[in-house]
Design goal:
The chain is mostly helical. The chain is built from 21 helices and no strands.
């Protein structure tokens, strides 16, 4: 039958075969149409298998590994191997009574996980710096960074540490553990899920309520709007500035920096919204990962609102083990600095990331040192605005080092803003980039919308008739079509 219609059968066979091939140039993304088609097929099968926890677990693990294969190729085998080692170590630790033996096993697992992460992410960085010191010719190793390795490595470490501390019991089966480690909504770009929060939900195997399903759909719509409409659109101008900063004026450069400040928030929080929404539809809660971070009035508050799963992980597994605030004032500042230094290096193998993390560490230390003085200042709208402005400017300038191609480009961009800035160029910029400016202004207004109002809008969507929900979804699809670029832009945090 198929041979009679080759013009139909060949494209169908090729497209079907492509579903089982890894394409490095087109990894599977939440913002791609292929993923949503597969997810729509996945959901009814998932609902049918939900009655049996074992069958549901097997199905989700298979889909998660397939998703990771389409995102990162054969590195899904490394993920399976890591999960097996972690699980065997945790089961062995549970049986041991000797604290020294259990501690040795814990460090064996941590060192193994960090070594794998270190090889893929930092080998060329350290080799480059070594060769710079000895002045030899450096040929970088041909290393491909597995997508999401930083995220699932941190989950792996927290699981083993929590088992060692007897905070949690190890999972009964390896299948349950790999379900936790490979859970596809959070696998490639977080949130970083903690075992003590997630595994009890797996044991309960609870079905999502209607409110959770519609709430999850609302989060997915918000995530698509943030990523595929706003972030990808404003990125087109931002990229021009950061790719060749010497060509642009101070006003254009400033707008590019402000644009990237909002872009990285929309890109990453958009992914988080989609991940949390997908998990919620499946009956799992991942927790909030962003809480209007640019409303913060100091750096400490910023890190309580930005990438919450990472900042809480760094607090619990780096800052507190270093001594936290229990070792005196100087050690508190030093521990803050070292924690943020590690956070910066986690984001990327380059000195600009180290600098970015170090400066956040310095900022946190300065804020803690100034707290006695700040408490004496009256808390009114003027001081609140000043504190907010200082925090926002500091965070925005540090994003320059995060985004720029090099440290030198970062300095050039900042110099452009402060040296070549002319107020009279602003009206011209608004005239030329009217659509971009309108989107930025709308985004800023939305970001500063009170949480109670945002909750009311979500509640209204959840309670609305199905036709309203459908219209909202179709409007988002239309916006994506209107603003989409030629290629689906990868999420910024895929590289971490």
């Amino acid at each position: 039958m198929w041979t009679e219609f080759p013009e139909i059968s060949e494209p169908f066979i090729n497209n079907f075969a492509a579903l089982f091939k890894y394409d490095q140039t087109a990894p599977m993304l939440f913002s791609s149409g292929v993923f949503w088609i597969l997810f729509i097929i996945f959901l009814p099968l998932y609902a049918l298998l939900k009655r049996s926890k074992v069958q549901m677990t097997l199905f989700v693990v298979a889909f998660s590994l397939y998703f990771y294969y389409k995102s990162s190729g054969l590195f899904f085998l490394m993920l399976m191997g890591t999960s097996l080692v972690d699980w065997l170590v945790s089961k062995w630790m549970q049986k041991l009574r000797s604290k020294r033996a259990r501690l040795s096993l814990m460090w064996f697992s941590i060192i193994l996980s960090i070594s794998i992460l270190g090889y893929f992410k930092y080998a060329n960085f350290f080799l480059w710096n070594w060769n710079k010191m000895v002045e030899s010719n450096f040929q970088p190793l041909d290393i491909i960074l597995p997508v999401g390795i930083s995220f699932y490595t941190f989950q792996s470490i927290s699981y083993v540490v929590d088992v060692y501390k007897r905070k949690i019991e190890p999972t009964t089966t390896w299948l349950e553990y790999i379900f936790f480690l490979s859970f596809f909504p959070a696998l490639v770009a977080g949130p970083i899920v903690r075992a003590d929060y997630f595994l009890p939900q797996l044991q309960q195997n609870r079905r999502a309520s209607a409110a959770e399903i519609w709430g999850g759909l609302w989060l997915i719509i918000c995530g698509i709007l943030k990523k595929a409409v706003i972030a990808d659109y404003i990125a087109q101008f931002n990229d021009l500035i950061f790719n060749d900063p010497s060509l642009y004026t101070g006003v254009q450069t400033l707008m590019g920096v402000l644009g990237y400040t909002m872009q990285i928030y929309c890109d990453f929080s958009g992914y988080s919204d989609m991940a949390i929404g997908i998990a919620l539809i499946m009956g799992f809660k991942l927790g909030i990962n962003f809480d209007s971070p640019y409303q913060s009035r100091n750096l400490s508050e910023f890190w309580r609102r930005w990438h919450i799963s990472l900042s809480s992980w760094l607090r619990d597994y780096v800052y507190i083990p270093l001594g936290g605030n229990r070792k005196g004032t100087f050690r508190t500042y030093l521990n803050n600095f070292l924690t943020m230094l590690i956070g910066g290096l986690w984001h990327g193998a380059a000195w600009k990331f180290v600098f970015w993390g170090a400066m956040h560490g310095v900022g946190l230390a300065v804020h803690k040192a100034c707290k006695p003085i700040l408490k004496r200042i009256p808390d009114n709208w003027l001081t609140g605005f000043i504190f907010w402005a200082v925090t926002f400017i500091y965070v925005s300038l540090l994003w320059v080092f995060f985004r720029a191609s090099s440290f030198e480009d970062s300095i050039l961009i900042i110099n452009n803003i402060f040296i070549d800035f002319h107020w009279n160029q602003i009206p011209q910029f608004f005239e030329v980039r009217m659509e971009w400016c309108i989107m930025m202004i709308s985004l800023i207004i939305l970001h500063f919308t009170p949480q109670w109002l945002a909750d009311k809008v979500q509640y209204a969507f959840v309670k609305s008739p199905w036709i309203v929900k459908l219209l909202c979804f179709l409007c988002i699809v239309q916006l994506v079509i209107e603003f989409m670029t030629e290629d689906v832009a990868p999420f910024i945090y895929f590289q971490f």
